[in-house]
Specification:
Layout (H helix, E strand, L loop, with lengths): L1 H5 L15 E5 L5 E5 L4 E3 L9 E3 L7 E5 L5 E5 L4 E3 L8 E3 L7 H4 L6 H5 L8 E5 L4 H12 L3 E5 L3 H14 L7 E4 L9
Parallel strand pairs: 9-10, 10-11
Antiparallel strand pairs: 1-2, 2-3, 4-8, 5-6, 6-7
Length: about 190
């Protein structure tokens, strides 16, 4: 998928997959950090998602955590008689949200519909937006359409509704099948 790479996106099925040259490691107390071997740097945030993670749970049965002479943590698998620097619990990490903001803290009068819907998938959902030919209604309809919803624009004026649909389609051609408009009940007899 050259188009994805051109857009700066990787062709992967996991947002947690690390870019080439990166490694995921853990501290003694269970925090996950990321090593960038190309730049020889480490950081707490995942290079793609920006999330901080920590280990959930205890070591599996038969495993033990040790520290080598350099202070590096390693793990001993007594059952299979092997050692590794890779924490066996890395598959069971959880996101660290130390200060989970409330809705009132995250959104204010300048928050856009795109910011509120970020990271959500509305594929297969039907959304009816009233007053969708201008203002907040238009921005909301556009945002839902971008996030995969089947959007119905409920407008009083057929001309302005058509213009709104054209503008949305002009901005995001790939969502052309997810938008339609709906006239008020009075206008149905004219169609």
């Amino acid at each position: 998928m050259a188009a994805l790479r051109y857009a700066g996106l990787d062709d992967t099925d996991s947002e947690d997959e690390l870019p080439p040259g990166w490694e995921q490691r853990t501290t003694k107390d269970g925090w996950v950090y990321y090593a960038n071997h190309a730049e020889e740097k480490t950081q707490w945030e995942h290079p793609k998602t920006g999330k901080r993670k920590r280990i959930a749970g205890d070591l599996p049965y038969g495993w033990e955590q040790e520290t080598d002479e350099n202070g590096q943590v390693f793990f001993v698998d007594h059952i299979n008689k092997r050692t590794t620097y890779l924490d066996p619990r890395l598959a069971f990490t959880v996101d660290d949200n130390p200060t989970k903001p409330t809705s009132r803290q995250r959104y204010d009068g300048s928050t856009t519909a795109m910011e509120i819907l970020q990271g959500r998938d509305f594929t297969g959902k039907v959304v009816v937006v009233t007053g969708a030919n201008s203002g907040i209604g238009f921005e909301t309809a556009k945002s839902f359409a971008l996030h995969g919803a089947h959007v119905i624009l409920a407008c009083r004026n057929m001309t302005r509704a058509s213009e709104a649909v054209s503008q949305i389609l002009g901005e995001w051609f790939s969502i052309s099948k997810s938008i339609q408009y709906m006239l008020p009940k009075k206008a149905w007899g004219n169609i």
